[in-house]
Amino acid sequence: MGGIIGQEYYFKYPNDISALILCATGARMRVSPFIFNSIKTDYQKYLDYLRTGAFYRKTPKEIIDDSLLETSQINPEVTYSDFKICDSFDTMDKTSSIDIPSLIICGKADQLTPVKYSQFFHEKIRNSVLCIINKAGHTLMLEKPKQLNKAIENFINNNLKFN
To answer: CA-CA-CA-CA torsion for 105, 111, 117, 119, nearest 10 degrees?
Structure first.
C-alpha cells in the first residue's frame, strides 16, 4: 500500500516531491483470486500462504512468525479492502511521466510484486536506480533491513542536495 500511496501522492502533487522510493510495489497491482478467497473464507489459510508468498524461503522463522502474528491482528475485512484497492490500482500509462530521481527496490524472491514490476519502473522512469536485494521477498524491510537502509542512504547521498 505504501507504494500505491507514494505514487498517488506524486501524481496529485508532483511539485511537492523531490524524489521517490518505490519499494516492493508496482504500477499495476493485480491480486490473485486465491488471496481474495482465502481472506474471505479462511483467514488462517491466507496467513499460511504469506509464509511462502511474502518471504524468502530461508528467512528466519522468528521474523516470519512475528510478522504473521502482527498481520493476524488485522481485521480480515480491512485486509480484503486493502487488496481491493491494490487490485484496482493502475498507473502504468502515467509511469513514464515521473521525472524526479526514483529509487526502485525489490526483493529478488518477491512473489507478490515480482522483480518484473520493478524492472518496468526502471525502464519507464528516466532518472531511476534499480536495487534488487538478494535473499529477500516482499517483506525485504524485515528480511534485509541493513541492505535496504544502505540502498536508501546511497540514493539520498547521490541524488538529493540539502542546504
So the answer is: 60
Domain map (residue ranges) of the chain = 2-159
Which CATH architecture is the domain 2-159 placed in? 3-Layer(aba) Sandwich (3.40)
Q: Which three cell numbers mark 46?
A: 491466507
Tell which residue, 80, 88, 141, has the closest CA to residue 110: 141
**Apex CA 85: angle with CA 81 and CA 90, to 5°?**
165
Q: Is the pTM of this model over 0.85?
A: yes
Q: Are 114 and 97 in contact (CB under 8 A)?
A: no
For residue 163, name the pLDDT band (cuts at 50, 70, 90). low
Helices (H), 56-114: 61-72, 76-88
Task: Band the pLDDT of 161: cuts 50, 70, 90.
Answer: confident
Note the pLDDT tens digit of each residue in 74-117.
Answer: 999 999 999 999 999 999 999 999 999 999 999 999 999 999 99
